[in-house]
Amino acid sequence: MSPDRYRLAAIGSDKLLFWAARTRINRMTFTPPLREIAFALTEIAGARRLQQTHPGFDDETLTAVLDAGGRLARDVLAPLNRAGDEIGARIENGRVRAVPGFAEAYRAFAEGGWNALAADPDHGGQGLPKALEIAVYEMMHSANMAFGLCPMLTQGAIEALSAHGTERQKTLYLPKLVSGEWTGTMNLTEPQAGSDLAALRTRAEPDGNGFYRLTGQKIFITWGDHDMADNILHLVLARMPGAPDGTRGVSLFLSAKRLVGDDGTLGAANDLGPTGIEHKLGIHGSPTCTMAYNGACAELVGVENQGLAHMFTMMNAARLQVGTQGVAIAERAYQQALAFSLERRQGKSAWTGEYPAPIFDHPDVRRMLMSMKARIEAARAICLSTAVAADLAKALPDGAERDRAKLREELFTPIAKAWSTDAGVEVASIALQVHGGMGFIEETGAAQHYRDARIAPIYEGTNGIQAIDLAGRKLALGNGQAVRELVDDILRTCAEIERTGNEWLLPVAARLRGSIAAVRDATGWLIERRGHAQPDALAGATAYLKLLGDVAGGWMLAKGALIAANHLGDDDDKWWRTRIGLARLFAESVLAGAPALAAGVMMGANDLSATTPQALGSSA
User: Fold this and answer.
1) For 419-452, b where at least 16 C-beta lie within 10 A, e where not — what string?
2) Across the chain, what does the average pLDDT equal?
3) Closest CA to 332 of 610, 138, 150
4) What single DSSP character describes residue 590?
5) Does position 8 have pLDDT exceeding 50, yes or no?
6) 20 to 30 A from 329, CA-CA: which of 13, 79, 416, 563?
7) Which of 138, 205, 460, 496 is catalytic?
8) Contact, 580 vs 507, CB < 8 A?
9) Do the beta carbons of residue 146 and residue 286 sit within 8 Å?
């Protein structure tokens, strides 16, 4: 008798349907949303412009890459997601062991060339756009977010070394990272530092041979150790002797798990390693390590005391990837909630009167599902638009156009990271609500998505830090030029909609215009206050990021709806009509709140400055 049959015999027939429903949902896998991704990438984010800047990139290549990436995500990575959560990575005798099956999956990933997708052909890459890589990684993260973190950080290491490494470092290390034979990590924070990198204490002492010896401890190092690849290259922030205080005295170093000879051969183990792995709320399959450097051999990357600036190359790449994780985990949670809503029967259908009906036929459940879908498609388009802007900023021949694309990338990066990860948590939470009590039970698997999603607003710079970056440094660029250009683009879309006279789309344009007025008010207030009332600007930063994210998301959906209006009556009419419905729902339920968000931006910090710990209930 199978274990399942034993269980059925034990629980009794009156509970059979309840158990069977849970088991079906638990076994539900991931379906790559290929059409939605391709639509967002080409029609909304404008990736076809990259066909002129990236040889070999065309519609056929895009389709083939997305199809193959989707199969890897669905067939290889998704089946390991549950085991990753339940078993988790473990540490044995000072070394980390990956979840069973992860190493084989990583080999399939590396052998498929997925690490090389957007890398420089000079180092074994395929030279395709970063935007296509981001689209593929969305599916990887949906299938198995814990697994996807390992190659994601390797991508950041590739970008950092490509931008700041010496020719020797590029020749020696990049081919191994690009091929996936080796992986990379990012070592920033320490127990006493958190996000305050000015407080770093890890030391880098010259060894007299052109190299350095690292001593110190780093915490929260994602995939800091594992047994899936032959070597791990750690990019580490540390201080040299006599370095200035604060962030001005931080340098960037490369320290390998196993020493590397000048000919690329692997030598002895370096004097570094994990002292433990964190017991986390989610992403259990991803080992988050505390790393000890005990005089580990290292080499300088880039310019002395410019480490933080160099590391930002890696961090910005990671921030867009983390925003994409928000989209990804939201998509996975949404798919499971939709499947459950079609299986679970309860109550009478509001439309047909059928009893018992799938809960999908309850208006409130459909509202939740459409709200989830709208946020996913808005966040996906924001992330892909950021990636397209990054590609154009590097590849366009005209300098003025490159500058404009770079400005859009700069503006959108904190929005993509923060707004999309907040959306990921919100969608995963709504998915639990669709499941009802079943969502609160671990066996269904729905709770894992919520637990996994919760880290994304925290790491790679908390969303509060992203908001400060947006309201501070990004708004200072051209004294608000990036926002003005975004507003102009949105108003052009509004005018296009209004010229159609489409009665279904006109309310979307009206809500967008109303939200633009709120953006202008809030932006002007922040620019005015930033110079002489810094606490006011900082207090309004998070509300400002949400406001810009909501408006950018509404614009993305409006662009999709405008295209959809030209396809009504096609064979797939329902798919196109859904694009219009999502834009309308988002406009009325999200964009309608723009004036309230603007008020939150402009309320100032007086009430915050007047508050004491005792007034908030602390006895300290």
Assistant:
1) bbbbbbbbbbbbbbebbeebbeeeebbbbbbbbb
2) 93
3) 138
4) T
5) no
6) 563
7) 460
8) no
9) yes
